Structure formats: structure tokens, C-alpha cells
Amino acid sequence: MNMNLFRSEEHARRWSGFDPANEEAIMSVRDWAFVMMTPATRSRLAPDSVGRLLDYRAGLLDNLATLGRSGERWRTREERGE
Asked: 10, 27, 44, 73 — which has fewest CB within 10 A?
């Protein structure tokens, strides 16, 4: 998976490596900032932050859902039955 930050939506869709399955991940910088406003982001420098990532997942998913982004893209492989 590649991440192209700060590209226009049009540019992202025209990119040769664009996968339509990732359409839901195209968001404005403002929306991404909102999604990332979670305890995980605020405490990322704490010594135990990596070990607590699963604890923080609910906040991330809640923020995504607030933006109407709750599709399969955001689920774990186990949740998708893979």
C-alpha cells in the first residue's frame, strides 16, 4: 500500500497505481486531521504507545464513522473473514 499525502482527489484517481478499492481512503487534510485526533496520536511518544495501539483503535474507528467512513477498508482481516 502506498500513501500519497497532500494530493488532490483528481490527481490521486489519475495516478497509475490507483486502486478503486481504496476510494474511501481519499480524504481532505482536514478530515485526516480529524481522524487522527485520538489518544493514540496524542500519546505516540509514550514508551508503551505501540503496545496500546489496539486500545486506541475504537477512537480511530469512531472518528472515521463520524465522517461516514465505516466500510470494509477500515476493518481488520479477521473482521473481514480473511
From this structure: 10
pLDDT in tens, 4-15: 566 788 888 888
For the chain, the three-class secondary structure string (H helix, E strand, C coil) is CCCCCCCCHHHHHHCCCCCHHHHHHCCCHHHHHHHCCCHHHHCCCCCCCHHHHHHHHHHHHHHHHHCCCCCHHHCCHHHHCC
Tell me which amino acid residue 21 is. Answer: A
pLDDT in tens, 25-41: 888 888 988 988 888 78
Q: How far is it, in rounded angstroms, from Cα 5 to Cα 32?
A: 10
Kindly state the cell numbers that stand for 47. 514508551
pTM: 0.70
